[in-house]
Amino acid sequence: MDIKAYLARKKDIIDKTLEKLVPPAKTFPPVIHEAMRYSLFAGGKRVRPVLAIAAAEAAGAATADLLPVAGALELIHTYSLIHDDLPAMDDDDLRRGRPTCHKTYGEAVAILAGDGLLTMAFEVLSDPRRLKCIQARTLVSMIREIAVASGVFGMVGGQVVDIQSENREIDFPTLEYIHTHKTGALIRASVRVGALYAKAGKRQFAALTRYGEMAGLAFQIVDDILDVTGKQEELGKDIGSDLEKGKKTFPSFLGLEESRRRAEEVLDALKGFGRKADPLRELARFIINRVN
Predict the structure, then answer these.
(1) CB neighbours (10 Å) of residue 106?
(2) 184: phi > 0 → left, psi -120 to 50 → alpha, else beta; which?
């Protein structure tokens, strides 16, 4: 299959969904809505919502009713990027090839824009008008999955350990914890949300969970590799920042060749699935071969 065409189709659908979920830029107070939209529509690949959709498709479900949930995943991801870029966190000036939110709107508005996106995600997820076709019990399970992945046992916890590990000697299990939580948790949750929506059986759910875990780790490993080998004009952000901040990475522990091999392990996660899982297989290849 043509993964680029698949991604382009899904991205268009997700972008149209996000336009419906997020208030127009001029909504009062306009600066906060402008800042939220500035980061949300900065050209992201929409990997997490696409993974949710592709996982549901792999389990045999139609996905039109999943779109608000997919949109909520992207709202949370964008919030995390805004906050990660802040001076108190990763202190980055560029994101997706243009100035980061705090460079454009100031730190205070950037913090609030992130807060706004995160809380709006759960406003969407709890809106019965948008999600009336999903059974309440299933929806509660999906919301909990996303909340845990976004909080102290997921992204927040991973970010904390990442910050504490700067300019310190850490062991490999600590690095794996950072990667599987800071980046991997929401990717894993995206896949599992798609599986929950599709009411996947136990074996399917376990296999999709494993795929989500491996895809999340692969995504961050490739980020580490690109920080060493990437080009700024392709990556859309500063390169070499991990080294400057004294961060340990997969290449610093394992070298580039072994790091790539670890990332490619995700390709073996879906052996029991048929053709309906081809988008997930191609998404895995896209993740490990990406240049930005």
Answers:
(1) 13
(2) alpha
For residue 95, the surrounding DSSP H or E stretch is strand 94-95
* All domains in the chain, ordered by first residue: 3-289 (1.10.600.10)
Residue pLDDT, tens place only, 43-92: 889 999 999 999 999 999 999 999 999 999 999 999 999 999 999 998 89
User: Which residues does residue 72 pair with via DSSP β-bridges, in sequence order?
Assistant: none
Q: What's the Cα-to-Cα distance from 139 to each of 133, 136, 145, 195, 204, rounded to whole Å? A: 10, 5, 10, 12, 19
Question: Are 215 and 190 in contact, with CB atoms under 8 Å apart?
Answer: no
Instruction: Give the CA distances from residue 247 to residues 13, 177, 195, 253, in Å, rounded to whole numbers and listed in that order.
Output: 37, 14, 34, 11
Tokens 């809505």 locate to 33
The string of pLDDT tens digits covering residues 116-150 is: 999 999 999 999 999 999 999 999 999 999 999 99
Q: Count of CB atoms within 10 A of residue 99's CB?
A: 14
